[in-house]
Write a structure and sequence with these properties.
Layout: E1 2-9, H1 14-28, H2 33-54, E2 62-69, E3 73-79, H3 85-90, H4 104-111, E4 114-119, E5 125-132
Antiparallel strand pairs: 1-2, 2-3, 3-5, 4-5
Helix pairs in contact: 1-2, 2-4
């Protein structure tokens, strides 16, 4: 298993930097295209949620991304420095498919093999997203 650690500030250019780093790692490990795209969408959504809802775009706060890649799985942990993340997830309204926002958690859950949400010791939110590299004909997680 290979593990990668990245740290980003909550600033407008960070999502693009994170995506560039993610793409580099996925290409290095020759992740198949269908899974590659699912991972990019889900991790991007979790990262944006961490920056916008967790850290409230506070440039003094960071987002940590840890990626673990092996032959059978890819796991991404996205951790913010916000507060109340679990409570916001539990009380969120169902997504409106026609709305510009509010669908991130649903997209993450749809594309991932497994998702978990945990509070950190400092009160932030850690989103763990797992993807099974061995599933055949990966189309969607229904």
């Amino acid at each position: 298993m290979t593990t990668y650690h990245f740290t980003y500030r909550s600033v407008p250019e960070s999502p693009d930097l994170m995506l560039d780093d993610l793409i580099t790692v996925l290409r290095e490990h020759e992740v198949q295209e269908a899974l590659f795209n699912r991972i990019c969408v889900a991790v991007s959504e979790a990262f944006t949620n961490a920056m916008v809802h967790g850290n409230r775009r506070d440039s003094g706060k960071i987002i940590n991304v840890e990626l673990e890649v092996n032959k059978s799985s890819v796991v991404a942990d996205i951790t913010d420095e916000g507060t109340g993340g679990i409570e916001r997830i539990k009380t969120r309204r169902p997504a409106n498919t026609m709305s510009e926002g509010g669908r991130g958690i649903d997209l993450i859950q749809h594309y991932a093999s497994k998702v978990s949400f945990d509070n950190t010791n400092s009160g932030g939110l850690k989103v763990s997203i797992s993807f099974d590299r061995n599933r055949e004909n990966i189309v969607c997680n229904s």
